[in-house]
Design brief:
Butyryl-CoA Dehydrogenase, subunit A, domain 2, Butyryl-CoA Dehydrogenase, subunit A, domain 3, 3 domains, binds flavin-adenine dinucleotide
Length: 422
């Protein structure tokens, strides 16, 4: 590793100045950072999109990927600076782009043909296209291979696939996106795992309908407890396909390659090696930057020390001190997992391991914080509780264990890395 996980090198300090100057010049005027993703207006969303597109052109949106395909071509040390400096301003560049982009890039790199890489990658890397991940269906969540949405070769025009079916729990905040990363069943007779195809297709196709889901959660805990909540989904959707024609040029890999492509994408979703390169998980603040990792925890500990109302509760009830210490100790463990992985010592499933730990931690964390804050957990008045509904939003996110793989699925992924189990 060519940088320290705890502080910048001299070269990074210099690069941070460059990044900050660019941010000063490019953050759209009037950009706001509401804590609750549901309070991001359409106008504010468009400002975020504009910033992300500018960052893509500059190479800051996907700093690690090759310049050849439109990526930034920056080193990991520089990419860390870009992510940290943007996070310190409450901005989470990657989050604006939804999961389909961050998961689609490595999938195209790993499984796409040369022609597909040259045509599809710049759409995301250089143009900053927003892509929704369209994998989950009513009968295909953890059992991702059980896809029922058919994309079958058109009998009339064999260059096209005709898509029928529906996806659930997908997308984020304001539709439509630019693209769908769409997993489908393209052969109704072939054996399981050999019957799927993946597309990176435009979202504005005829026959697509997008319907909002009224969910309680603003997004997974990692995106709701960091310095910024800009990467949180906010709203999820159902997407229905009714005789939608997709040209074969939008395939990733070949027809029937879908399971291989999905696995390359899921490697990122499950916190694998690719996640580090794409900055997935930066929701906690700045990746690799231990002291920033658990922003919610830091703000909570500050309140326990400095807020007379909370300090008085802890003094009056010594059991609450135990809750504070539980939060502190588990947060330290989480920080150390991050440092271990940043140092390249996580092993094959290090990312998934850290992701699983954070999911379990989120439940403990929010329960313990709720005990300590008591009724003050419900207020957004910082003099009494935590700033700007921070706890309430994170608590809703903590309930949300399903996205990025359920804890049980992550355990299966880890067991496979250890060559145990199926
Ligand atoms: C806020 C939110 C955002 C999401 N974003 C997206 C998105 O952008 N794109 C997308 O495609 N999907 C998205 N999802 C869907 C998410 O990926 C699925 O919810 C998840 O994969 C689980 O699938 P499921 O809900 O069908 O649960 P199921 O697969 O039905 O699982 C139900 C329970 O059974 C357990 N289980 C299942 N199989 C096993 C097994 N073999 N061994 C042990 N336990 C098992 C699970 O762990 C879980 O506890 C999102 C979901 C939410 C809630």
């Amino acid at each position: 590793m060519d940088f320290s996980p705890d502080k910048y090198t001299n070269e990074q300090e210099e690069f941070a100045k460059e990044v900050n100057q660019w941010l000063d010049e490019n953050i759209p005027e009037g950009m706001e950072f509401p804590r609750d993703p549901l309070n991001v207006t359409q106008e504010q969303f468009q400002k975020r999109r504009e910033l992300a597109k500018r960052a893509a052109r500059k190479g800051y949106l996907y700093p690690n990927y090759p310049v050849k395909y439109g990526g930034g071509g920056y080193t990991r040390a520089q990419a860390t600076v870009i992510r940290r400096e943007t996070a310190m301003r409450n901005i989470q560049l990657m989050g604006f782009h939804s999961a389909g982009s961050t998961m689609g890039i490595p999938a195209i790199l790993a499984c796409g043909t040369d022609e597909q890489k040259e045509r599809l990658l710049p759409l995301i890397l250089k143009d900053g296209a927003l892509t929704w991940e369209l994998f989950t269906e009513a009968e295909a969540g953890s059992d991702e291979a059980n896809q029922q949405t058919n994309a079958l070769r058109s009998e009339r025009d064999g260059e096209y696939f005709i898509v029928n079916g529906g996806k659930i729990f997908v997308g984020g905040i304001y539709p439509p996106p630019d693209n769908f990363l769409l997993l489908t069943r393209s052969d109704t007779k072939a054996p399981r795992h050999e019957n799927l195809s993946m597309f990176l297709a435009p979202a504005d196709m005829e026959g697509v309908s997008i319907v909002p889901l009224d969910l309680f959660v603003p997004g997974p805990f990692g995106t709701t407890s960091g310095r910024s909540t800009a990467g949180a989904d906010g709203i999820k959707y159902q997407v229905f396909f009714d005789d939608v024609s997709i040209h074969e040029k939008y395939l990733i890999g070949k027809e029937g390659d879908g399971w291989r492509v999905a696995n390359a994408a899921l490697e990122v979703e499950h916190g694998g090696i690719g996640a580090a390169e794409t900055g997935a998980g930066e929701g906690r603040g700045a990746q690799f930057w231990g002291s920033e990792q658990s922003y919610l925890v830091r703000r909570f500990i500050d309140q326990c020390k400095n807020n007379p109302v909370i300090a008085k509760r802890i003094k009056a009830n010594p059991f609450l001190l135990e809750s504070v210490m539980n939060v502190y100790i588990e947060a330290e463990k989480e920080r150390l997992f991050g440092l271990r992985n940043a140092g390249g010592m996580g092993g094959r499933a290090g990312g998934t391991h850290a992701q699983l730990f954070s999911k379990k931690f989120s439940i403990l964390l929010t329960n313990e914080i709720a005990k300590v804050l008591g009724p003050y957990g419900l207020t957004s008045d910082e003099e009494l509780g935590m700033e700007d509904t921070m706890f309430e939003v994170a608590q809703r996110g903590a309930l949300c264990l399903a996205p990025l793989g359920t804890p049980e699925v992550l355990k299966i992924v880890i067991s496979r890395a250890l060559a145990i189990g199926r």
